[in-house]
Amino acid sequence: MAASRIVIENCAIATVDANDTEYASGHVVVADNLIESVGAGRAPAGLENVVRRVDGTGHLVTPGLVNTHHHFYQWITRGLATDHNLFDWLVALYPTWARIDESMARAAARGSLAMMARGGVTTATDHHYVYPRGAGDLSGAIIGAAEETGVRFTLARGSMDRGQSDGGLPPDFAVESLEDALAATEATVDRYHDASFGSMTQIAVAPCSPFSVSTELMRQGAELARRKGVRLHTHGSETVEEEQFCKELFGMGPTDYFESTGWLGSDVWMAHCVHMNDSDIAAFGRTGTGVAHCPSSNARLAAGIARVPDMLKAGVPVGLGVDGTASNESGELHTELRNALLINRLGAHRESALNARQALRLGTYGGAQVLGRADQIGSIEAGKLADLVLWKMDTLAHASIADPVIALVLGAAAPVTLSLVNGRTVVEDNHLTTVDEDAVARSTRGEARRLARVAAEG
């Protein structure tokens, strides 16, 4: 059967390929779920089976945004504990999070995914680690929400086995045993992970953090991931308090602890990595360990400024993350392009820290590297998957900025005229085509109220 083609032309294009190739006015041709061609000027004449032509005048096309770290369930606990640092914030919210159930997880995932997709995210990651006893099939609910929304998805199946009675932060009834956590994680991999080119669902092994899991869960989790051929994800070096915790409990800092448990490598990525010294960064660069940089959440929780320019110089793969919407209430990744650039310029490198094109690369190709999918997504190149965003750049908000990439990164949030995931339309004229946004909003409001009520009842 002949391929169905979508032609987008007359638009600016930022390919984010190895040479940062850009076209002031060019075209992209999509054939089924793949990018067939990209180049300057109009699309080639005589293309067959063209089912849609898009006049991209006044627009910029980029690769779809790739979110490398999130906690979807937090969508229904936004706006709480707004003046806390990480540990105090966790202590304040864990009792509520520990009451989450399958219906709540589904609604929260739908809200998180809808907000991201509408803002240009085509690949999303959820690090879900709260599995209260008797809560139902939380992983299935989250994956089902991603399938419904139409976004490419990685579930980082998290776990916690260190409750309050063992010196951890979460309530005991919200943690799993070591054996149950490993068994449930393996079952999730077996049921849902698709390693094929173009897969829509992948699974990573993702114990929560050093202060909520045992050393044995870290070690055996790494062994499980490598036996199954999937990636590894966790939180690392987010705060000064975490570093102190690791030194007191393990006699070493977070990076040395991760290395001792098998958690450095090109199949690993860590969220945050704010407090890393030169040797830590060198270890990540040497081993190819990736980083999910979450600037808004780091600022919201007063965690600090991650040394992103130094990481990039050392060859560390770095992508962007929304992080949970209880510490980044906007829930959008395109705002992280701007915040990554601005916040890093407050650090030691000042105005030389990042530029607009580096920020766009973090949010696209960098994220694809971190998720191990840079051969499939993250740049606009022939043969890659058709995950593309057409941003409207000729509105009042961007009218006087000549450079469309600078307008996208530093300007106001640009409307999404068209977003394709795997060649399928997910956003049209700034609205989702796959789900009813109003219905999603209603369900998330209802589940947020129910969670608050259940948590208050204890």
Commentary on this structure:
The protein is globular. By secondary structure, it is of the alpha/beta class. Strands 1, 2, 3, 4, 5, 14, 15, 16 and 17 form a 9-stranded mixed beta sheet that branches. It has an 8-stranded parallel beta sheet with strand order 6-7-8-9-10-11-12-13. The chain has helices at 86-97, 102-118, 138-149, 178-192, 215-228, 240-250, 254-260, 278-287, 295-300, 308-313, 334-344, 356-370, 404-410, 437-457, and strands at residues 5-14, 22-31, 34-40, 50-55, 59-63, 65-66, 121-128, 152-159, 201-207, 231-236, 268-272, 290-293, 318-320, 388-392, 416-421, 424-428, 431-432.
Strand content: 15-25%
Which ranges are low-confidence, i.e. pLDDT below 50, for 5 or more consecutive residues? none
Radius of gyration: 21 Å
Distance between the amino and carboxyl termini: 59 Å
Q: In oligomeric terms, what are we looking at? A: single chain
TL;DR of this structure?
Helices cover 36% and strands 22% of the residues. The chain has 14 helices and 17 strands. The protein is globular, with a radius of gyration of 21 Å.
What are the key terms here?
458 residues; alpha/beta; eight-stranded parallel beta sheet; 14 helices; globular
